[in-house]
Amino acid sequence: MLRLSLKDFKVGKFFLLINIGFWTIMSPALLVMSVDLYFLLITLGALIMSMIPMSAESRDNTEILYISLPINRRIIVFSRYMSSFISIFVTFAWSVLWALILDKYLPVLNIGILHRISLSGLLTFIFFTVFVISILIPIIIRFGFMFSITISIFVTAIAAFGFTFGITYLISLNKDLFSLTNQGENGMLLLSIVKSKNLIYFLGQIMNRYGNTISIITIAAAMALVVFISIKISVKLFYRKEF
Amino acid sequence: MENILEIKSLKKVYNNFTLKDVSFNLPYGYIMGLIGPNGAGKTTIIKLIMNLIKRNSGEIKVFGKDNIKSEVEIKSKIGFVYDIPPFYEHLSLSQNKAIVSQFYSDWNDQLFGRYAKEFEINLKSKFKTLSRGMKMKFQLALALSHNAYFIILDEPTSGLDPVFRRELLEIFSELIQDEKKAILFSTHITSDLERIADFVTFIKDGDIVFSESKDLILESWGIVKGGKELLGTEVESLFHGIRKHEYGFEALTPYVKEIKQKFGKTTVSIEKPTLEDIMFFMTNSNGG
Fold this sequence. Notes:
The complex is a heterodimer.
Chain A: H1 2-11, H2 13-26, H3 35-60, H4 63-68, H5 73-105, H6 113-116, H7 119-143, H8 145-173, H9 177-181, H10 189-196, H11 198-210, H12 212-240
Helix pairs in contact in A: 1-5, 2-3, 2-5, 3-5, 3-7, 5-7, 5-12, 7-8, 7-12, 11-12
Chain B: E1 3-13, E2 18-27, E3 31-35, H1 42-49, E4 57-62, E5 65-66, H2 71-75, E6 78-81, H3 93-101, H4 109-118, H5 132-143, E7 150-154, H6 162-175, E8 182-186, H7 190-196, E9 199-204, E10 207-213, H8 214-220, E11 222-226, H9 233-236, E12 240-245, E13 248-253, H10 256-267, E14 268-271, H11 275-283
Parallel strand pairs in B: 3-8, 3-9, 6-7, 7-8
Antiparallel strand pairs in B: 1-2, 1-4, 4-5, 9-10, 11-13, 11-14, 12-13
């Protein structure tokens, strides 16, 4: 399985280097950017990175190649998850590690990542990325890469605008909701989330209440459950798939 | 004769096409050609053998084992060549080779190197820069380098120059000499089959028209030419793909003896057909 996952890095090594290079250059952006926004961008980078081998597979029709080789189909599916998760891990690990290196050896930049980053924040973004990948892979297996990505972007856009519109509309109906959402009177929900770091606020509160160990175990268990269900569905779809 | 491939009552239904009740066998040590017009079902059969698509019913046994239950084991002993080569376009040939070779326990790097040299393949070239012929050669080198016992090829000779085609056919002939291997390939180039195939399976509209020894087919079938006045419902039922023209008719028949007895040598002329003739007449036939 590892061999099959590693071939994804051979296939996408150029983009992996670009991704790592990009975050190497972008780390000082933490000076002017909230940690949330920074990690949101890293999340996008990690997602794109994990999609590269699948897009190459779709473009060159290499799925047929793997199906024709003496490899168990279950292993092909597992390896797809594995390479995606390795991509996510590498992207996050390097972006944090590099910021720490800059902190230590170039204190003049004053990035101060250790003071600004929280475990809950990091876990939230990793969990979010894993969650998105777990949703996307079965869809890609079922409907193909191009169709799935197009539909996903469309659905995400509709969901994001729908969510923003819905909340803003509710707030306009009931002024009391302002105090609940703490969004101020402008109703710019997404911008407020980014600015006030509310995206990780909720998880941070939970971690404060239950302690890091329980929270991390809970998040890890939730992540594992999502991945397990996703793999189960993907394996089933992959066995049924015709090439 | 022990069979390397056994297909029994194979059926695959699509919305606009059905592969109907296909049955044929390929013994060890022989080469079988799959011929038929475009859309006849040749690639569908190859895909079903490789388990790329799911059969609706029937049975496929490769090396005596079910091709789905023993998929991994069977595929480790199969060398495949597809009509559209499924390799990473942006990677070099050696990178593509590295991806494939690691999954075969019997991979022979020296043998691959030998074929690469023989086929004049530059392993540093990117796959996307290759011509169709070179892509095919690369696929062939891969298929022949892991000591496969069963080689399956979908249109392997299309896009290849005549000189290399002939060399390739010689390689195929050499491969099966030990009688432990077999080759199944689909093609439109019937002259290739005439040169090396032992068996020919003709498919039309998802149906097997015949699956027999090539020599038997070429010996027993004939092209009959004669005057139009000879034709009638009873006579026409003996022919395939009757072509009527100003001076008479020509048609294909598997009943050469009967025709000779019925008309004698003077009223009709009977010629030996090529596989291309058979394919042509059968494709234009509505039964008979």
